[in-house]
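Q: How would the structure tokens look for this protein?
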Amino acid sequence: MTRWLTTIAGLVCAVSATNAYADRATADRCAAALPPASKQLYDKALPAVLAGQTLEDSLTPTARSMVFGGQLSISGARSAAQAAASCLEQAKS
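A: Here is the predicted structure in token form.
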């Protein structure tokens, strides 16, 4: 009985991991089509999103640091973040 439950638990974990990978793969394909600034935001915010932070909590400080660092204009920050957010949403599991 215990062996059977262990096998079922292993299958559930494998299916869950496959679903998470599929979401990440879809998000990465989405990000590949982003403009350069949005792709940079995606790449920098992705670890925080995968760790469970909200999109706003992961993108806002990232975009702010890119603006202050001269990598992103203030006027372009919102549109770049919105484009990155659409892909990051897909990465959430």
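The helical segments are 2-32, 36-50, 55-68, 74-91.

The chain has one domain: 2-91.

Upvote if useful.
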